[in-house]
Here is the input.
Amino acid sequence: MYQIYPRSFQDSNGDGIGDLRGIVDRLDYLAWLGVDAFWLSPIYPSPLADFGYDVSDYTEIHPQLGTLDDFDTLVEEAHQKGLRVLLDLIPCHTSIEHRWFGRHPDWYIWSPIDGPPNNWVSVFGGSAWSRDDVSGRWYLHTFYPEQPDLDWRNPELVEAMQNVVRFWLDRGVDGFRVDAVNVLVKDAELRDDPPAAKPFPFPLHEDAARLDHVYSANRPEVTGALRSLRDAAGDALLVGEVYLPTAEYQRYLEVLDLVFAFELLFSAWGSASLAAAIGPAAALKRAAWVLSNHDFDRIASRVGEASVRAAAELLFTLPGAAFMYQGDEIGLPNGPGADPPRDRAGRDPMRHPMQWDASPTGGFTTGEPWLPLIDPQRWNVKAQCANPTSLLHFYRHLIQSRRNLGPGFRLRDPEPGRLAYERDGSLVTIETSGD
Ligand code: GLC
Ligand code: CA
Here is the structure.
């Protein structure tokens, strides 16, 4: 599966912002690369406080990205080329500008007192509670204050979100990447999170790292909420973003088809660390392997340029679904971002536009790109297409070859500098930097 960050994939009208028509124009590229499906990061109307993860209308298209007609064209042409389409579903929160916030305040989570009712903190730091200027009441926001959390204990909200799922399925989508699933349901009594007893294994804002998020997140009741999504989704693919270690995935996999294997995404590039991340996730059988996305370092920046081929080989020879992020196939590193930053949480460096050719705007746009290009002469699709020994061709080769791999998988004991596993008789060895 190929993750598209729509604003940065292909601009079709010269406004410097990638759009749906641009994606249509690049479907042949995705078909050539050989992926089965693509996941679109949010395409809905949004005031862009969190670049689309703050949705102000779940059943429309952001005007900068196109129209519902464009979307229908995209789905139709993708399907004609054998590509399936996954959308990003953001059920945890809306934009504060969503009409629901004013019209259906009881679909959101409010403090029962005049002030924050507990010590919960936002993923981006600071209290997770803010005062609504209109009502004077305090609402919960697990992410930015512009993203009030929805109350999954309210059956009307559940039904509204089920209707969102049905709306897109009726338009032909094949599944959803479900955002922030581990924080979908919170403690009904809003109890304080206790202090963290041990460090959380993934990157976390220092405010969040002080607490053990047992009440603000990862509640057992989440399974019920996910079941209602499943009821609406039928057998469409649901892949969950569960920002937790593998040991916590079971309750999510009761309903979801796949869960991203974050331990792999954050593993050090050493054989023992990788083996420790891969073993338990592989045992679940339904890990979605992933090494990068729009939130965290690009592969080339994380493992180093010398290891990008080894990382690709790992990603595409592990057993089960693999997700790749646009641009990694040409070795794009993190970029410089923008000044002033677009994303307040510092994620611009991973969101620079796709570089299609060596021209100054990389074939991405004829206008002024919303984020600058990195270095289109050094990294671009056109040049790598023309060169059979390029990283891009290596990706294509791996994507083709993985179709011949059976389900068998056995990890060997890691040796320093070398991770090895058997796939139905063939041995895969991945060079790592130390252990
Ligand atoms: C997910 C998205 C991230 C977003 C957050 C809040 O983690 O990947 O980009 O900021 O959810 O919706
Ligand atoms: Ca555009």
The mean pLDDT is 97. The first strand starts at residue 2 and ends at 4. The CA atoms of residues 110 and 139 lie 4 Å apart.
